[in-house]
Design a protein that fits this description.
Helix content is 71%, strand content 0%. The chain is mainly α. It is globular and about 40 Å long. Pfam families: DUF2783.
Length: 68
């Protein structure tokens, strides 16, 4: 069973962060939300494994609750 990769796995995290912030620069809040939603769906499709996606959702929701 595939597991969610939680160890750093970026080839260039700084470049990804720069590209992500550039994609949002000078966008409205609604446009940024659409970008994020589309990015999530594209990456979820790439991952494809339901169990991995559900694990990611559980962790993201838990982390959001802990941040309150």
């Amino acid at each position: 069973m595939p597991r969610l990769e939680l160890n750093p796995n970026f080839t260039d995290p700084d470049a990804f962060y720069a590209a992500l912030t550039d994609a949002h620069r000078e966008r409205s809040e609604d446009e940024s939300e659409r970008i994020n939603a589309r990015l999530i769906l594209l990456l979820a499709n790439h991952i494809g494994e339901q169990q991995v996606l559900e694990e990611a959702l559980i962790l993201a929701a838990r982390d959001a609750e802990e941040a309150r």
